[in-house]
Amino acid sequence: MAHDITLKLADEQATLKLGADFARALCAGVNIYLHGNLGAGKTTLVRGALHGLGFVGKVKSPTYTLVEPYQVMMNQTNTNVYHFDLYRFMDEDEWDAAGFRDYFNPHSVCLIEWPDKAGSLIPQADIDVYLELDGECRIARLIGNTTAGKACLERYQEF
To answer: What is the tens place of the pLDDT at every residue in 67-81?
Structure first.
């Protein structure tokens, strides 16, 4: 099975669907880094993932709050999903000052937009998701970096 998946997404609905389908393959304890320019679809993908996990409320960008917490059922267990947006970080020391380390644990899923803003202080990504605009479409590339990340991508491909 491939641990590097590239998909062409026709529109916003396709990005939401990718998020929802991808969410079914996730397990607690994974860290997913979302890369892409402004408007590439990072928050849209997260919105799709959260709705795919059964969250029914509004999913907003944590641009100003830095993190938005959600609680969902995952494999019949309450799981915390944390959606980070580090775009406004000026340097990696803000990561430590914000106290985010505790969010990364075996019982949560962390989705991080702009992970490079935290430098080397954040844990390794289990999965890197690269989104880029390609004319009217988006290209999504999912890369499994760890055993857990590769297992998620293998489950995703089974759907």
So the answer is: 999 999 887 788 999
